[in-house]
Amino acid sequence: MTSTWIRNAWYxxxxxxxxxxxxxxxxxxxxxxxxxxxPGGVVAALEDVCPHRGARLSLGRCxxxxxxxxxxxxxxxxxxxxxxxxxxxxxxxPRTRAFPVAERAGFVWLWPGEASxxxxxxxxxxxxxxxxxxxxxxxxxRIACDYRLMVDNLMDLTHETHVHATxxxxxxxxxxxxxxxxxxxEVVTRRFMEGVTAPPFWQAALAGAxxxxxxxxxxxxxxxxxxxxxxxxxxxxxxxxxxxREAPAERKVSAIVVDFITPETETSHWxxxxxxxxxxxxxxxxxxxxxxxxxxxxxxxxxxxEAQQENLSRRPHQRLLTLNxxxxxxxxxxxxxxxxxxxxVPLPGG
Amino acid sequence: MTSTWIRNAWYxxxxxxxxxxxxxxxxxxxxxxxxxxxPGGVVAALEDVCPHRGARLSLGRCxxxxxxxxxxxxxxxxxxxxxxxxxxxxxxxPRTRAFPVAERAGFVWLWPGEASxxxxxxxxxxxxxxxxxxxxxxxxxRIACDYRLMVDNLMDLTHETHVHATxxxxxxxxxxxxxxxxxxxEVVTRRFMEGVTAPPFWQAALAGAxxxxxxxxxxxxxxxxxxxxxxxxxxxxxxxxxxxREAPAERKVSAIVVDFITPETETSHWxxxxxxxxxxxxxxxxxxxxxxxxxxxxxxxxxxxEAQQENLSRRPHQRLLTLNxxxxxxxxxxxxxxxxxxxxVPLPGG
Amino acid sequence: MTSTWIRNAWYxxxxxxxxxxxxxxxxxxxxxxxxxxxPGGVVAALEDVCPHRGARLSLGRCxxxxxxxxxxxxxxxxxxxxxxxxxxxxxxxPRTRAFPVAERAGFVWLWPGEASxxxxxxxxxxxxxxxxxxxxxxxxxRIACDYRLMVDNLMDLTHETHVHATxxxxxxxxxxxxxxxxxxxEVVTRRFMEGVTAPPFWQAALAGAxxxxxxxxxxxxxxxxxxxxxxxxxxxxxxxxxxxREAPAERKVSAIVVDFITPETETSHWxxxxxxxxxxxxxxxxxxxxxxxxxxxxxxxxxxxEAQQENLSRRPHQRLLTLNxxxxxxxxxxxxxxxxxxxxVPLPGG
Lengths: 350, 350, 350
Known about the structure:
The structure is a homotrimer of 350-residue chains. By secondary structure, chain A is α+β, with helices and mostly antiparallel strands.
């Protein structure tokens, strides 16, 4: 069966902070994976199944860079080789599937497809990761819906007016025209609002940056979808008539809403959400406040999306409408579908 | 697939008290329905699916008599028309299915079948609804069994002796002969017990009406099944030798046990239960006491019926016995089956 | 369909202590069973389904040695005959299936197969049951895995080093050779460790018996599998160089780990675990301490086995390896498979 996600791509498997010396079992892109720190603390990922009796490796422990099965003690190396077992000749024990993984920008990335095609040069560049001018905070939700419903959600921020009325929504979002384009391998959706009142979330950000909270602002939202399922959203407000998104740094507050979306099953996904910002980057209390606010906001999406999935699961033939506001999601889905189709094409001589 | 319930009929969807200005989502007769108050507070019912992206409308809000989808703000009118959406031409958005509904006698009634056949004249007349000589109290349970098992239960009160031994059961029920007849489109089951001791529930009622609680009484139970799945039970006790059910009002206490049973799925239903009484109708504390007692009693049925459903689900070929005491349920099921069969007959020229 | 368990055999259905005057409903070997005390307190077992309307008999009550259905009061005798019902001729009510049962050695035993083949002479002899030189304590877990994964677990105690590192595990178990033989219709697995340090569980036992806890000991584990799925394990430690398992009683502490394993469904089972011991048999506080310790230890197995079952259920074609340490489980499974095959052979003239 063809899956509904791209196989040959880097997905976020975990945040770096999740991966301590305790192994972490997680279903990712339909695979049972155990993530752990191999030799020298380098991340490793194996299929979460002991080749001896099928036990779940992630219930075991990590020792000297190997996974030790918690049932009978088989040690599996980071490359999947059966490495040691008391009283046994491990050369006859089958290898465990190892997945390409990389740790970058505070995340552990996993490549669920052909290992030979995994190329770290394809990892996205995240500017905030190692730059003191930036601060980042975020969290993780498991959401019981097709990951593409989350892509739709993020590529059409019209929903903020309705789902997030008390925090980031405002009626001017609905009213501002939206433009969707393909640009450099990304789907980009842009919306600009001029001379509006900042909604509560942005008032707090303005205050945090020492700017007035009740002056009219220009607000922008520029959503970038890139395969396999990353959505980065440039958001911000500038004091009105200062140039909007291009205003000088001291007249605006801006940030990137970070959304890494990893399928778990056909009807569930891991949603790694966060915000990278350039205002007040040295203020960890602000980071915590923003994270808490985002957590509340994205929990509102969770409720909407899980109910949407239930409705769609009961109506396999329901057709979704594609209005102009849905162009971002529709083009993102089309890009995903095209790449899945390309993966199914046999290689020359294959 | 033929469903196991009649489609062209009025079912109770909610009590009037449940339907405030918050929309109410509920699965009824296999349909996802959102109930809300349309223009002027008149009840309305739509399929609980937004025609835009499949969101659950009942997670949205009700504004000026329209449902506003909580995802992107599409407004759907009470008749199902897409009525407004910021920046959109709603004329191209498909209608949402609207269900005929009516509010009557403290309940919201829904017609899940052909809208063109919905006739409010077919709504049952409930004498207690607008008459100060009557008081009514009740509640709602969701029960995980085929709704017909509840019809069986109510049309054979022999079970009171065993299921409700501490409240309304007594061994004389088992011993009194039961008579089942078809009468005016209803299945009627009658049982009379003469010169018995009142069980605890009726002792409390006698006390509430200022009558002696320890004198012998004549007791009666007359169950009326009418399609699609309503069971009204005339119940009461009169001081012995005063005429039983026909005794003068001051020598008896009587009531109607009200049971509106609405399928949710093939193996679950909504059970709207209550009691309408003519004794002490102006005593709200008594209404509360009776409701609490009924709630406890019907919870006993719930446990029995859900376990019965589990047994039957595991044994699809299990044959149920039909003893004489089961005649009421059997004839009610036969009436349901006949009406379902009639619905399947194409109309002339159809 | 062929089940994965032997049908014609005695399985533990309950401990005697569980079976009070309240009937006990339990799914055993794929059958819904109600256990109760029939005439004279003798155990009885019926299919847990009332022949009248399919109610669950175990929700009813036990009266004068009969099950009384909690729905309409049908009385079913211990042999399955419909015995009484108010106002009914019970001769037309079908019999309920009765299962052969026996109470022996503190347990209720059930024979799920052909009743005509049930022979109490086949019940296992449990030496500790009626002998004041022995003490017994135990408990019950429901575990969501194929019962044969539990047999594997118990017939290969290598897992103790890893699963039970803090109580009974020690690295010498892994290192000691294991021997598996067929002996008297049993699969027997033996492991001996000489001159080792006693692990915490056995140090406590040595202390309980008044022996030094820090002296080197000889330790043994002799696992006996007998059909259908009983595992009795002789375990103990003796002060080193006193003869090991054959040491005089005052130089050792020994016990039998008792494991009766009863399938519930294809992927779940009832695990009756306990320990019978000859040291300090008159010390009920020690019995309680051991039971608590065993309960903690077996809960560790539960977690491992349920995760193993999940892995295997998702991978129906996963092949399990059979290393030398797995010989005990493999031979036990082979014995089970052989007996199931024999049951499928039609009897002569059949």
